[in-house]
Design goal:
The complex is a heterodimer of chains A (about 160) and B (about 525). Chain A is α+β, with helices and mostly antiparallel strands and about 160 residues long. Chain A is built from 7 helices and 5 strands. In chain A, strand 4 (about 135) and strand 5 (about 140) form a beta hairpin. Chain B is α/β, with parallel strands linked by helices. In chain B, strands 2-1-3-4-5 form a 5-stranded mixed sheet, with helices on one face. The radius of gyration of chain B is 24 Å and the shape is globular. Residues about 1-5 of chain B have low confidence and may be disordered. Classes of the chains: A alpha+beta (about 160), B alpha/beta (about 525). Bound molecules: flavin mononucleotide (FMN), iron/sulfur cluster and FE2/S2 (inorganic) cluster. FE2/S2 (inorganic) cluster binds near residues 84, 124 and 132 of chain A.
């Protein structure tokens, strides 16, 4: 599950302070904020800039450089599909088409019911069991379209019952 | 459990906790074994080991018998009751049985030095690690001078396993001789290449080996702090390394006084954030400093001005995990494996469309043919192998006519290919090599750090040109343009991201020209 806490300046300040002792602390702080709020809220930027004595532009520059940091809140679950070569060789493209149709969502988008966000990744380190998909932090290997449906079935059922 | 343990033999069953095993249901299999044993009143000890690297057999369940560990796989949760019925706890026969694990030809024919313990021990048991030879290299290093350690590593012939193949001992020597108040050891665990998973596997299966290797490096060069930079796509490896580091501190293998000696070494894990370029060493250092992961111009070398401007050893996971055995068994022992200037062993990774995918640790000199057919068993789709990409997304696509090439840094360089990190991605005859060439450009466009124009803009242009070629538009002219573009990227890029993207493109064009020159009609008809 992706974190759903609403933005809170107090909480963010505490998260940032908890990582203050680290050298090169910006990445650990960003990870911790994203874990707490699901994304890097715009309002976190000045807090980070002040804490680390950087310009806001510097902080923005870092946030936007890394694929992992998002600026808007994701769906309740994030599905990452591997698009790299080993998965390509096992028809990842076909799997991706299936997922797009099945969930009615494209890469970098969230489904209308806010349940799933779909993200491309380049390699999940499961290349001998391609194609690979990660749902939240759970890795899946040898994911055929049918297996994808099975993997997401219980989540879909829970989501439908909401 | 109801029975008193001493009246019944306690069975030991191994179920991997490696991410690849988990990805095909290892947790469910372990839970099913636990539940079935409870139901039958059988006392059982389940050890969650790393992976043996025979990934097509995952979940590979092993049971301890007087003859050795017997393998069953792939075991799904629904197979468990049947295995109990068949008497698998005594090593009985079954449709999923493979006999003694270490006699399985795929495993038996390997030369496991770096991965010697991976899949065998409980990765988070210091005791298990010690029982299997762990910390012997470090203990020896603690009794040596820094220069002696560096000499041992130099003499072993170990070259960087992260791709470039730079001699590790020479790098360490530079850091040793640098004068500074602070030095660092940084482990590059970014492992961004498609088709590679050996770093992940050893971090999850034998994390103390990396801690030991880094501590030896620290003593050798006079560093007191280290970081392991792990990519964010590897949550299991991050968790395992963090826990192993905590345990190593508890047992005084890390900290201010390593096992009563005057040596001090502190180690921390840092997590990347999904940028391939952060595997390039200077980008990684920028990222560790909390910045955008853009490439630094060299010189200065990181060995002289690395992390926070201080002398820094940057080594790949497999370079560092090869060090303990070199110190334990001696430089000669390690150097005696291999060919030419490629010494020791490499963990080849068979991936993609391959029947028996996994890790094959072999001395350099093994051929692609042996790896693909004798170990790999051909494709999983049963169709002929048409191409393999060796050495990651910046590596060449090779046709079957080159499969007799021995795995050796120089032999590969001679055909404009690279061994890289040892990853081998297999494609069957359904592959469209023009699309693969397009992807190489697309990947570079997505992952370029943006610092230099040939890479940042060239890759975007490369995608456009490939689109026109694929559409059958002025193919000859566009191929000429593509070649020009490749030349500019090769000559004008600051780092290998832009500089080597032309390698997969050109190799596809060279070895599979027919895929670039099909008429638009033929393309449309497919
Ligand atoms: C674009 C690019 C990506 C790289 N990715 C990795 C990587 O993921 N892991 C790695 O160890 N080295 C990677 N390298 C190589 C490192 O820059 C560096 O050579 C290596 O970490 C040095 O360690 P070694 O001498 O032990 O191989 C990459 C290089 C480039 C140019
Ligand atoms: S070649 Fe590409 S990745 Fe490398 S420094 Fe230049 S822009 Fe950055
Ligand atoms: S290429 Fe998809 S998991 Fe590695």
């Amino acid at each position: 599950m992706n974190a759903r806490s609403p933005w809170s300046e107090d909480r963010a300040t505490a998260v940032i302070a908890a990582n203050r002792h680290l050298r090169g602390a910006l990445l650990p702080m960003l990870h911790a904020l994203q874990e707490e709020f699901g994304c890097i809220d715009e309002e976190a930027i000045p807090l980070l800039a002040r804490e680390l004595n950087l310009s806001r532009a510097d902080v923005h520059g870092v946030v936007s450089f890394y694929h992992e940091f998002r600026r808007s809140r994701p769906g309740r679950h994030t599905i990452k599909v591997c698009r790299a070569e080993a998965c390509q060789s096992m028809n990842a493209d076909g799997l991706i088409d299936h997922i797009r149709r099945r969930l009615k969502v494209d890469f970098h988008e969230t489904t209308a019911d806010d349940a799933f966000s779909l993200e491309p990744v380049f390699c999940l380190g499961n290349c001998a069991l391609a194609p690979a998909v990660m749902v939240d932090e759970t890795l899946h290997g040898r994911v055929s379209p049918a297996r994808f449906d099975a993997i997401t079935a219980s989540t879909l059922a829970t989501e439908a019952a909401r | 459990m109801s029975e008193p343990l001493h009246t019944v033999a306690l069975h030991t069953v191994y179920v991997p906790r490696d991410a690849a095993a988990l990805s095909v249901g290892a947790d469910e299999t372990a839970a099913a074994i636990r539940a079935e044993a409870t139901r039958r009143g059988i006392p059982l000890r389940i050890v969650r080991n790393g992976s043996r690297g025979m990934l097509w057999l995952e979940t590979l369940v092993e049971v301890e018998t007087p003859e050795g560990r017997v393998a069953y796989g792939p075991v799904m949760a629904e197979d468990v009751a049947g295995l109990f019925d068949a008497g698998f706890l005594e090593g009985a026969d079954h449709a999923l049985a493979h006999g003694l694990t270490e006699k399985i030809p795929y495993f038996a024919r390997q030369e496991r030095l770096t991965f010697a313990r991976c899949g065998i021990i409980d990765p988070l048991s210091v005791e298990d690690y010690r029982l299997h030879g762990g910390f012997r290299g470090l203990e020896r290093a603690l009794a040596m001078t820094p220069a002696e350690i560096v000499t041992e590593v130099t003499d072993s012939g170990l070259r960087g396993r992260g791709g470039a193949g730079f001699p590790t001992g020479i790098k360490w020597n530079t850091v040793l001789n640098a004068q500074a108040d602070q030095k660092y050891i940084c482990c590059n665990a970014d492992e961004g290449d498609s088709g590679t998973f050996a770093d992940r596997m050893i971090m999850e299966g034998d994390p103390f080996c990396l801690i030991e290797g880094m501590t030896i490096a620290a003593i050798a060069v006079g560093a007191t702090e280290g970081y392991i930079y792990i990519r964010s796509e590897y949550p299991h490896a991050v968790a395992t390394m963090r826990e192993a580091i905590r345990l190593a501190y508890d047992e005084k293998w890390l900290g201010d006084e390593i096992h009563g000696t005057g040596h001090r070494f502190h180690l921390d894990v840092r997590v990347g954030a999904g940028a391939y370029i952060c595997g390039e060493e200077t980008s990684m250092l920028e990222s560790l400093e909390g910045k955008r992961g853009t490439v630094r111009a060299k010189p200065p070398l990181p060995a002289l001005e690395g992390l926070f401007g201080k002398p820094t050893v940057v080594n790949n996971v497999l370079s560092l995990t090869s060090v303990p055995i070199i110190l334990d068994r001696g430089a000669d022992y390690y150097r005696d494996f291999g060919v030419g200037r490629s010494r020791g062993t490499l963990a080849f990774q068979l991936a993609g469309n391959i029947k028996h995918g996994g890790i094959v640790e072999k001395a350099f000199g093994v051929t692609l043919h042996e790896l693909l057919y004798e170990f790999g068993g051909g494709t999983i789709t049963g169709r002929p192998i048409r191409a393999v990409q060796a050495g990651g997304p910046l590596g060449a696509y090779l046709p079957p006519s080159l499969f007799d090439l021995p795995k050796d840094y120089e032999a590969f360089a001679a055909v404009e290919a690279m061994v890289g990190h040892g990853g081998i991605v297999v494609f069957d005859d359904s592959v469209d090599m023009a699309r693969q060439a397009r992807f190489a450009m697309e990947f570079c466009a997505a992952e370029s750090c943006g610092k230099c124009t040939p890479c940042r803009i060239g890759a975007v242009r490369g995608v456009e040109v490939m689109d026109r070629i694929i559409a059958g538009e002025k193919v000859a002219t566009n191929i000429t343009l593509l070649n020009d573009l490749c030349e500019v990227m090769t000559d004008g890029s600051l780092c290998a991201m832009g500089g080597m993207t032309p390698i997969p493109v050109r190799s596809a064009l060279k070895h599979f020209p027919e895929d670039f020159t099909r008429s638009p009609a033929a393309v449309a008809a497919e």
